[in-house]
Design goal:
The complex is a heterodimer of chains A (about 190) and B (about 325). Chain A is of the alpha+beta class. In chain A, about 20% of the residues lie in helices and about 55% in strands. Chain A is built from three helices and eleven strands, in the order H-E-E-E-E-E-E-H-E-E-E-E-H-E. With about 325 residues, chain B is mainly α. Chain B is globular. The chains are: A alpha+beta (about 190), B mainly alpha (about 325). At the A-B interface, helix 2 of A face helix 5, helix 8 and helix 13 of B.
Chain lengths: ~190, ~325
């Protein structure tokens, strides 16, 4: 009899936990990165006199936006390094080499959020940014986040810019040569859900 | 960007440290036997490499992050350790060869660690293909290592080490021209320290009756491991073609051609010269092709497309006046 009561109590507790968990999970909206309407581009100084522009063509990601408890929102972005495109095939091939992105060793650049804070017009997201095998904690300001319904597909968009030094991520300064150490990354992305 | 002055500094310091280390060890012990000289070469090479890579400032990471880090911080020290052990008289020959086989078998796996080839990230490299490639590479390394060691025993001399140094130097230049500057630069202290150790060991051997016909297996052993590592990294992580890498790895085996009866009984300097010429021929061809490819690849990068405007128009479309030279790339 006592054993039966224990089993019932345990079931009740587990059931309650599961239900609460489901309720909190259902409050977050999951969005997939929309490659068609998004871009991850970058620019870097050349000889200190001009800028070289490029982009990554193969990007994926997921956003989970919790409107009720925004601090529980999460962001994840994965960039395939061998999709680098600077509108010059020879230079792109050079950038894939071990002196630069080392795409065979480090095939992706990743960002994974660890904490999110609501700010006016968007979110301030802190997370782990991994590039070239080195992970650094960075904070980015994502502007946007309002949902837009177009033909039954719900969309949300964010944009951000961040500056980083490639030498902080294990790139050899001397191999960088004429291209500046500092790079500016511009992310404009849309997430979609049905 | 390549820095020739820094390369020269790294090579000179590596060579000087290796030679001085070996001479210092000889000065401490006047009765040097063959096994002792063989073992004494290893600390000289190790110290020379450490100083050379320090001067070169290769920015190695610990724990090793990429294939070059693993090559310089795991593979080469292990090879040095094996050759040091092999030099001790108490270590049987079969024991030393077991260790060498162990290193040859694991080296491709160590160099490919956490890369797209093993993570399954690259669909062009399924598990079976990667495993097959690693097995073939290990077998090739072991084959070249064993054949050169056998030749060193059969017909000792500095020419085998010189041939290996020549090949490593060419491999470094080719890897650099294929777009991996740091990987190619790693060859330079290796060449300098092996050359310096070979020459110093030879001078010591000439002065000592006990080691007059000394055969230092350590130098070709470390040379083969170094050559294989550079070519493997250049091939799997850089843009070095498989054909080029194979040609360079097998080139030192041409030294075996001097074992034909026609050449075998000639003067040692003649045999040595033949060996170097035989090895230099395929290396010259490979270097020439690499230079041609390098020049071709650099034209669009430097904005120096010298083709007539009509040729560019035909390729990309538009009128010549619309097409500006590719600049600032």
């Amino acid at each position: 009899m006592r054993r039966n009561v224990s089993v019932w109590v345990l079931t009740l507790v587990i059931g309650t936990i599961v239900c609460v968990g489901e309720k909190s999970a259902s409050a977050a909206d999951e969005y997939d990165y929309d490659l068609v309407h998004s871009s991850v581009s970058f620019k870097s100084r050349h000889l200190g006199i001009s800028w070289i522009h490029g982009r990554f063509n193969d990007v994926s990601g997921k956003f989970s936006l919790d409107r009720e408890q925004p601090s529980k929102s999460t962001f994840k972005l994965t960039i395939k390094t061998d999709s680098v495109d600077t509108a010059n095939k020879a230079r792109d091939e050079h950038l894939r080499q071990p002196d630069y992105f080392d795409t065979k060793q480090f095939p992706t650049i990743e960002f994974k959020s660890t904490s999110t804070k609501v700010i006016k017009g968007g979110y301030e997201v802190t997370g782990d940014f991994t590039m070239h095998g080195t992970t650094q904690k960075i904070t980015i300001v994502l502007m946007g986040g309002e949902e837009h319904d177009f033909k039954g597909i719900k969309r949300v968009a964010f944009s951000t810019e961040l500056a980083l030094k490639r030498s902080d991520y294990g790139f050899d300064k001397r191999a960088i040569g004429a291209i500046g150490d500092k790079a500016l990354i511009i992310i404009d992305c849309e997430g979609v859900r049905k | 960007m390549p820095d020739p002055l820094l390369y020269v500094q790294a090579m000179v310091s590596a060579a000087c440290v290796s030679a001085l280390c070996l001479l210092a060890m000889v000065a401490k012990r006047r009765t040097a036997g063959e096994a002792w000289l063989n073992s004494a070469c290893v600390p000289g090479i190790g110290l020379g490499l450490a100083v050379g890579y320090y001067v070169l400032s290769l920015h190695l990471a610990w724990p090793p992050a990429n294939s070059l880090d693993r090559f310089l911080m795991i593979v080469l020290p292990v090879a040095l350790g094996i050759e040091l052990l092999a030099g001790f008289p108490c270590v049987p020959s079969w024991g030393a060869w077991c260790l060498r086989i162990g290193l040859a078998a694991t080296m491709p796996r160590i160099l490919l660690h956490s890369s797209v080839y093993l993570s399954g990230y690259d669909s062009d490299w399924p598990v079976w293909r990667t495993n097959a490639a690693m097995a073939v590479c290990a077998a090739l390394l072991m084959g070249v290592w064993a054949l050169l060691a056998l030749l060193s025993k059969r017909s000792p001399g500095v020419s085998i080490s010189f041939a290996l140094c020549l090949t490593i130097q060419c491999a470094g230049l080719t890897v650099m021209m294929a777009g991996y500057i740091k990987g190619g630069a790693a060859a330079l202290p290796l060449v300098a320290t092996l050359m310096a150790t070979t020459i110093t060991a030879r001078l010591i051997a000439k002065r000592s009756v006990a080691v007059a016909n000394c055969c230092t297996l350590a130098i070709p052993g470390i040379g083969v491991v170094g050559l294989f590592g550079l070519l493997f990294i250049g091939c799997f992580f850089g843009r070095l073609s498989t054909g080029t890498a194979l040609t360079m790895l097998l080139a030192p085996l041409l030294c075996w051609l001097t074992e034909i009866p026609l050449l075998r009984h000639r003067q040692p300097w003649q045999v040595g010269s033949f060996r170097l010429v035989l090895v230099a021929v395929p290396l010259a061809v490979v270097l020439g092709l690499a230079k041609r490819d390098f020049d071709r690849d650099m034209v669009p990068l430097l904005g120096m497309d010298l083709r007539p405007p009509s040729a560019i128009t035909a390729q990309v479309g538009g009128t010549p006046s619309e097409i500006q030279p590719i600049a600032l790339r």
